[in-house]
Automatic annotation (TrEMBL):
Single GO MF descriptor: hydrolase activity
Domain Serine hydrolase: 22-151
UniProt cross-references to PANTHER family, sorted A to Z: ESTERASE OVCA2 (PTHR48070)
Protein name: DUF341 domain-containing protein
Superkingdom of the source species: Eukaryota
Keywords: Hydrolase
Native organism: Fusarium circinatum
């Protein structure tokens, strides 16, 4: 795949790797199935952290397992979220995002941190992802930057750490 806009300044025009091709239902389903298999073999895991396309995959796994007890993850940390895809549409060969208006309530029932930047060209995906997650467990933080995990200023890093800590606490003690 070609690099995402803005990334070529750092890595050049060479092909880059991705979990899946975003326009291929088969590629997305294969990535979900591969991750599902890895979780089954290596899990359980306390939590999952995803960035962009990694959020899409993590959210699809959590949504797929929403009736499992225990869930594959007790919490999720979503940075600059990509939206999950509708698995039913993927099975029919269509690539369609899963949106809250397509569901009957939240599909993610574990505590979630949604950390995004208002300058991200895809910030609407991060905001839409929050609607797929149960309100009691959501922690939202706008770090003010773009499609990145900022390292400065230190106050922003501290804010992100506190958001993660809140979510882990919710997972551990249920508050």
């Amino acid at each position: 795949m070609p690099p995402a806009p803005g990334i070529e300044a750092f890595i050049g025009q060479d092909e880059s790797l991705a979990y899946y091709h975003p326009h291929s239902a088969k590629s997305i389903l294969t990535a979900i199935d591969d991750l599902w298999e890895h979780i089954a073999e290596e899990g359980p895991f306390d939590g999952v952290l995803g960035f962009s396309q990694g959020v899409s995959l993590a959210a699809m796994i959590i949504a797929r397992a929403r009736h499992s007890n225990p869930p594959p993850f007790q919490f999720a940390i979503f940075f600059c979220a990509g939206l999950p895809y509708c698995e039913k549409s993927l099975s029919a060969g269509e690539v369609k995002f899963l949106r809250s208006e397509d569901t009957q309530g939240p599909v993610i029932h574990v505590p979630t941190a949604h950390i995004f930047g208002k300058k991200d060209p895809d910030v609407s995906y991060s905001k839409a992802m929050t609607e797929l997650c149960h309100p009691w467990g959501r922690v939202l933080l706008d770090h003010g930057a773009g499609h990145e995990i900022p390292r400065v200023p230190v106050e922003t890093v501290d804010d992100m750490a506190r958001a993660v800590e809140k979510v882990v606490t919710k997972a551990v003690i249920g508050q």
